[in-house]
Amino acid sequence: MAGGSAISGLVGARVHRKEDRKILTGTGRYVDDVQERGMLHAHFLRSTVPHARIVSIDVSKALEVEGVVRIFTGADMSAIADDLNFAQPIPGLHSPSYPAIARDVVRFVGEPVAMIVAESRYIAEDAAELIEVEYDELPPVMSTKAAMAEGAPQLFGDVVPGNIVHTDEQLFGDIEAAFAQADHIVTDTLDQHRWACNPMETRGGVATYDRGSGQLTYEASTQTTHTLRFLLAGWVRHPIHQFRVIANNIGGGFGLKFSAYREDVAVCAAAKAIGGTVKWVEDRNEHLIAAGAAREEQLTLEAAVKADGQLLGLRVTMDLDAGAYPINPPATVYTGLVRTTLPGPYRLPAYQFRHNIVATNKASYISLRGPWAVETLVRERLMDKIARTCGISPVEVRRRNLITLADQPTKMITNVTLENVTAAETFEKLVSMIDFDEVRREQEEARARGKLLGFGLGTFIEPAPGTKDFWAAVGFPFGAEPARIRIEIDGKVTVFTPQTPHGQSHETTLSQLVADELGVGFDDVRVVYGDTDATPFSMLGTGGSRAATMASGAVVYGSRELKKRVLDIASHLLEANVDDLQIVDGVISVKGAPGAQVPLAQIAMGCWLAPEQMPPGTNTELEYVASYDGEGGGFSQASHACWVEIDQETGDVEVKRFLVVEDCGKMINPAIVDGQVIGGVAMGIGGMLLEHSAYSEDGQYLSATFMDYLMPTAPEIPDIEIEHLEYESDKVIGSRGVGEGGTVLAPAALLNAIDDALAQAGGGRVTTTPVTPTRVLELLGVIEPD
Amino acid sequence: MNTREITVTVNGRRHTRTVEVRRTLADFLREDLGLTGTHLGCEHGVCGACTVIIDGVTARSCLQLAVQADGAEITTVEGVTLPDGELHPVQEALRDSHAFQCGFCTPGFVMAIYGMCEEKKAGKPVPCSRAELREELSGNICRCSGYQQIIDGAEAALAAAKEA
Ligand code: FES
Ligand code: FES
Fold first, then answer.
1. Alpha-carbon Rg of chain A, whole angstroms?
2. Contact A682 B146 (CB under 8 A)
3. Per the CB 3.0–4.6 Å rule, which of A494, A513, A545, A699 could disulfide with A140?
């Protein structure tokens, strides 16, 4: 199909968001806003110990509390719901199934041991305090190293031998030869800490069982209604055609809300058992303890390089701390993503990647905005280290290795096609915007003030949505994306998407596209999402930064098909050639002959009410399900530069300036792109400097409030400067995802800047995160490492 | 159950209700009055999502009990919206700047910025620079936006708010 989408003005403009009226006036419907008649409230009693056998659980006193309706222990729950099982036919994957409420053993602080259903949340929490649980404590395993050690306590016995959920090694190219030819071998390590998605709306759901119809409805805070539906229907043993999942406003997800959780199972099963409505919304404390966290990974790298900085080969090992229980997707998807993406936009002739996914006594390892991000972090830090080793600049080392547009199409060593990838071009643009002499002057000036000014940069590619061979290499399906479009009886348009937007503004962007394609007003398009009774199936919902390409493609192709049908009818009515017709503001007219016109509404009414009276041989179906295959997919790319100032007395790191050059192809709404980039960068900064889902050595959780888990607030984040490239490929849909990249690349540029600052004072290099003031002072030698 | 009768004026409407003394003001507004625009992001006073205006002062409704608000006049996000359903200039400014994404934090920011604009109208000093605005809004957490476009909107709203 010919390139270029039909643009009549909305696409590419900073259109006001449709979502804003609702959210600014407080009229949204988030899960906690749902109030049903006779609604009951669920609260979970959670384990206070990291690893133990449950000896006994006594709920008798709690049951006496007035207003308590029912209490479910693990045994009670197991009678009405199956264990959660995320196993998939992946060779060597040990994926234990587990009950919604712990039955025999608890494996992390925060694991549900009972669910109290009561008339109010206050009563349920009162009752929880009266439940007596006797634990026979087992030694906890609190790191990947401890878990893999000889004689380590086994979390799941033979089900996960040696606590290793999965282990693998993959070889690409001749790695031995690469190291044999090397002038330098550059090594590096990174021990990344756990940090969390922490959407401002926690997890939650409201389950309603309708005894009359037998229908179970779950209104949830989820990123993926259809997957939640089929997983839950199975586990709560409910026929799927009688199970509906709804999502209205969702207060952020960042990957967390992609999985189904044991609490979802328990709440749905309870609603069915009780025969009514049960609401569960976790509080922040529960969320921080039990919802899971991300990014806890240890990597070692060994690079074979030529004297001039040219990369010859790379050996990587990765240990991923999976926590106790698997969620969706299987952790092999994360290691697959890291392995496949790690070479990035650089030429790499040989590569070896080994990983261990390891079970520990912590909450689950979950997806967090760019779950593969550590690949960019370690690669971009390694590039800087190679530059130092070879005595060239960080800019030069990248230039010597980057794949430019002129080199494409080509393949990554991990068998992924690179085409239209402009990482090198974003990098050159970034470099052209920086006055390096000025940076050096500022650094001297800062040192004169007793401060250290660090400068760092980095570049990357983002599989948003990725290519078919990319997902094949990862081991995850790259599905097509559907959309159903209906021209209503009055000529207005309803779009049904399987996307489950939770901040990504799809109501706006998809309306822009459809309005432009069909020649109708922006306000005449409504986007319906988040209802498995209404929207076409997709496994993914909103995740993986797919929508900009995939959902856009589905609605564009769908609109074009309906437009074709309408114009065909109009050509008969107006006795004109289809090619001479246009739709403007909902009116079909002959180009250059404004008198000859027919309103879209008139055709729509005819098609719906009296199709037999429409011109013979025309297609009068004005509802169409389109499916878009992504045209082979592709990548987003960006380069970041970061300036930090370090206070040598306090160890404080201040991000002074942050510059982004990004290329997500054709922007549908630049204001929304900016928002995604800025929000992503802020999350990356917060994750590296402030946030920490910390455990004590004996397995207690240490960051259970926002006083301990520090979220970035406005003063910690600088204004982010953004430059867009908008490289135009020959694809019909030239837009690429941009939701995750900020969080993926920002940590790399930031840590490179911190290292640059520390080096000026003879300090050490960051190898462990988060980079707290204490860590900085340790690296500067001001205080002793503890 | 320990209960008390309270009378509270919310967004210009008087409500007399019997509440449990331990009931938070946020739960009272959200569940008893159905004003679910006020959100709960932490319930321990850090995130600011629950910000409302009590007798002219911005406050966190998760940290107060409903009984403490007896006799008070409260404005919530629902009360900021103009009577004809049109956006208040503060809301307009935040829409124009594309300030928000998921919207969960939004009512808290709207109230905090609305509060600043009201102060300015009353002739009180308000933050001028972006850095000051960032400090002033540091009690509100937004996970999505990275704050920049919120600060843009707050700047515009404050510039438009004129001393009466
Ligand atoms: S909910 Fe009140 S401050 Fe967070
Ligand atoms: S817009 Fe999502 S938390 Fe602020």
1. 28
2. yes
3. A699
